[in-house]
Amino acid sequence: MNRHTKLLAVLAGPILLCLSAPVRSQPPAAPEKPYTPPVRVATDWMGRTLMVVGDERRAVPIWIADLEADRIRLALAGQPAPRPLTHDLMLNVLTELGWRVAEAQVSKFEENTLFGTLVLTDGKERKEIDARASDAIALGVRARAPIVVAESV
């Protein structure tokens, strides 16, 4: 045994011993399902339209235009528009290209602005696309994808 082999045996011995020792592990925990809060469209005390993401414990208000609100109401009710609207068109294009909306996120709140992320997948690859929170949710509702709000929001 040469000098390098002896050194390797001295250094690697404890590592190999650790690797060969029986490992007591617990069965893998079931993956947590992301919390998908309910989404609804409402009117505030001043008559402005907003989308509310959340429940009675926690909710995030997102003020939106009346036109967007009507479109989201249609999607929540499962009613198709007579012709594809902008979010329907986007979803149709994604579907035709082999992508699906895996998740819509309200990812952060910074400088009085909510940021969204649209998570897409084609089964092999995952892409995260920056979006307005309201657009991410509108697409997520249409795609019946989970809506996830970051804890920091």
Percent strand equals: 25-35%
Multimer state? single chain
Number of helices, counting only DSSP H or I runs of 4 residues or more: 4
Topology pattern, helix = H, strand = E? HEEEHHEEEHE
**Strand numbers in spatial order across the main sheet:** 6-5-4-7
Query: Cα distance, first to last residue?
Result: 62 Å
- Report the major sheet: 4 strands, mixed
Rg over CA atoms, rounded to whole Å, is 24 Å
Give the strand tally.
Answer: 7
Q: What's the shape?
A: globular
Q: What's the pLDDT, averaged over the residues? A: 74
Structural class: alpha+beta
Q: Could you name the ranges where pLDDT drops below 50 across 5 or more consecutive residues?
A: 2-35
Kindly state the percentage of residues in helix: 25-40%
Question: Any descriptors?
Answer:
153 residues; alpha+beta; 4-stranded mixed sheet; 3-stranded antiparallel sheet; disordered N terminus
Structure described in brief:
By secondary structure, this protein is α+β, with helices and mostly antiparallel strands. The chain has helices at 3-20, 66-76, 86-96, 133-143; strands at residues 39-43, 49-54, 59-63, 100-110, 113-121, 126-132, 147-149.
Could you characterize the architecture of this molecule?
The chain has 153 residues and is of the alpha+beta class. Helices cover 33% and strands 30% of the residues. The chain has 4 helices and 7 strands, in the order αβββααβββαβ. It has a 4-stranded mixed beta sheet. A hairpin with a 5-residue loop joins strand 1 (39-43) and strand 2 (49-54). The chain starts with a helix and ends with a strand.
